[in-house]
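dude i think i finally got it to work??
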Amino acid sequence: MSVSERLWNATEERRTRIELQSRENFPVATRLLPARHREHLLNVYGYARLVDDIGDEAPPGERADLLDLVERDLDRVYAAAGPELPVLRDLARTIVACRIPAEPFRRLIEANRRDQAVTRYGTFDDLVEYCTLSADPVGHIVLHVFGAATPGRLRLSDRVCTALQIVEHCQDVGEDYRNGRIYLPGDDLRRFGCAEDDLAAVVTPTRLRGVVALQAKRARRMLDEGSALTGGLQGFARVAVAGYVAGGLAALAALERGAYDVLAGPSRPGRVRLLAEWSRTMGRR
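look at this
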């Protein structure tokens, strides 16, 4: 089923969000959480996943119009009018119940608009700035779901979410390149002597592994900085956020274990390592 068909098919959209969450590095809505929290997180995930799929998988000539369609329906939610799209109807319940502002949802749409125009990033700072649109808003939304959004927590959340996004870019180097995009910073590629053709290799060249390892090191530092967020949370918010941090740490371990050969095959975190990191993260103060 195409992305545009999923926009209007409630059953398919809900099935898709449940299936896709199992492919993420971290537990999107762990069963350790109460049903109400799981439902809210899955509604948020369904929105974020659909917007990303429009930006990546819809026919190129339809992407801008479909993103506009989603934003118009988001406007209906905040105008207390009935949204038309099933995923927005689900999201509206979460927005109302958790009092989530519109701005982070709009930033996710803007990130995918940028993806249609920007396919290369010159520096790591450029990539981090992109993550303020593509990744950080999700952390803000999650904190609102748990009623835990404060300025200090939002700042720490940004470090965690940017790190998770960079880890994903490291894992998906080959897929992104086939889609016409490079998220590895251009100045790092040049410094290590990489050409764009290296990203199409069957086995990751040593020089490209060095670039990926550098990004992974930066992501690890950000996760270490942002992990203080977990220690400042209580209850189910702590459980959920610890799972996200643990997923990032487990994914970094998988990259290292595979010697940063991201082109030969998927480098995904193992369940045992994820649970171990989750336990350690939960125990931090």
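The chain has a mean pLDDT of 90.
im so relieved honestly
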